[in-house]
Amino acid sequence: MIKLLIADDEALVCIGLQSMLKWEQYNIEIVGIAHNGAQEEEMIDTLRPDIVISDIKMPIKTGLQVADSVRKKYGRVPLFIILTSYEEFEYARSAIEVQAADYLVKLELTPETLAASIQRAITLLGEYQTIESYPKLVHRGNLQAERDKFFVRLFNNLFENKNQYLLQQEDLDLDLSESAYVVCTCRILGPDTVPPRGDKLVALCSSTVQMAKDTLTSIRPCHVTSLDLRNFAVTLPVCGTDPQLWMPDTQKLLADMASVLHNYFNVTIIGAIGFAVEDPYLLRESYLAARKALPAAVKAHSFVFFSEGKPPEQDFPLFDFSESRSEIRRAFEEMDTQALYAIISRMIEIFDGRSDLLVPATDAACNILYMATSLLADGEEIVEHIFEHDPEGYRAIYQMHTIEEIAGWLVCFRDGVSEMLSTRRQSYKEQIVKNVQEYIKRNLGSKLSLNQVADVFNFSPNYLSHLFSKTAKVNYVEYITETKISAAKEMMLRGEGRIYEISQKLGYESAFYFSKVFKKVTGMSPREYIQQAEAGAASERGVQENGRG
């Protein structure tokens, strides 16, 4: 049964909702009624409903405050259906960041509108449960978040090699098989009615990016990736590398998207489009071209295309992270807080007092932020914790306009991440090894070479091997062998095929080699193990029959 919680401070509304539909027809059970926000959140924690129908205005906590808090704790589920009055509707619409399944106006509430809303929620619930059942790697909260990280890595050249990129692409089920792709970097401008910082701005920008994604994907398969509060990237498939073939359609597609967002949120979307690349692994080149052309787009207040022969219209170069990238990667991988502290301190010294380096300093800070959220298993949670006392959180970096502010942000990040990683180093490493072990168990039919698994988890093979041996107290290869043989024993006892079939299911090249490994580990051949198990089972049956006799 699907569990439903109703929350409203008006008793008549609660009674009306309870009696408005025959809930059992929807396979729904009402598990609780809450009359204020605090009670609602407490009941969600204890009852764990799948759907919550919640009023916006309630004593102690509003419905939106509860939805935001619950979303941070539990992710997509429970789904919220928000009840509003006419005067609250615009406020509700501006708070889409709580990812409500629907909004219902109380005075227009009928059995039909409620049934339609519930049906939408049930459909969404099924989709989310499908996504959440997808094999998790490193704290995978949802597939879309991991796909966003994938494109951030791709744009910022954070993959160690192409094989690592291909493995993660396959693992995330990303289809990048079109003939060519182009990246467009978009910026959200306005409106003047929204403060330059605060929750309303966060709500506006996150809602704008989500609607951009919905609008574009309804027309053409593409990937929309949030870069920061005001900027997002669109990776579009195009028909080839010749710009004459794809520029007109791309221009219209982006202009139509901007028109929809302007009509709905009163924002202006401008952007720059890079050049097309045939190999998606080279999307970074298209992304950098778009970044170089973005100042021209800001100046023109529209969408512009990168022109290779035209010098970029910007005063300062983009920050070249290539020299520091490998150092920072190693520091994050190995939890080397001293090295990380030294690298960031060196960057702060370079930018200190150099107001002319504001643009590269901002790029540097954003690159480090991307690397932290991309390379650390729970990087986003770590960064949020570091800046939890700042009203803007880590997003404050996008509101800074002086080199002193950027340096201060880097100092806060440096000190915070060094402290957190040093205090949780061992538990963090244990979690990584646990995630690798779970991945191995889910993929026993593969060869699971050290290089391949290291690429999936974004680590170097040497580091993963050292970490595994030290933390799991067993050699990586030995662990895979023992795990496969244990699985083979269970398959044999359950009668899941002949010996050669079991060897194939476990990724062995031949039944002969499998039998050789099996005997080395257990001291007997697979056939001897099966015979021994059958003899034991027959003996047990005999004992039971004698007992009954």
Automatic annotation (TrEMBL):
Pfam family, one: Response_reg
Modified residues (4-aspartylphosphate): 55
Keywords: DNA-binding, Phosphoprotein, Transcription, Transcription regulation
InterPro entries (UniProt xref): CheY-like_superfamily (IPR011006), Homeodomain-like_sf (IPR009057), HTH_AraC (IPR018060), HTH_AraC-typ_CS (IPR018062), Sig_transdc_resp-reg_receiver (IPR001789), Tscrpt_reg_AraC-type_HTH (IPR020449)
Gene Ontology biological process: phosphorelay signal transduction system
Record-annotated HTH araC/xylS-type domain positions: 434-532
Record-level Gene Ontology MF annotations: DNA-binding transcription factor activity; sequence-specific DNA binding
Residue ranges annotated for the Response regulatory domain, each copy included: 3-121
UniProt protein name: Two-component system, response regulator YesN
Species whose genome carries this gene: Paenibacillus typhae
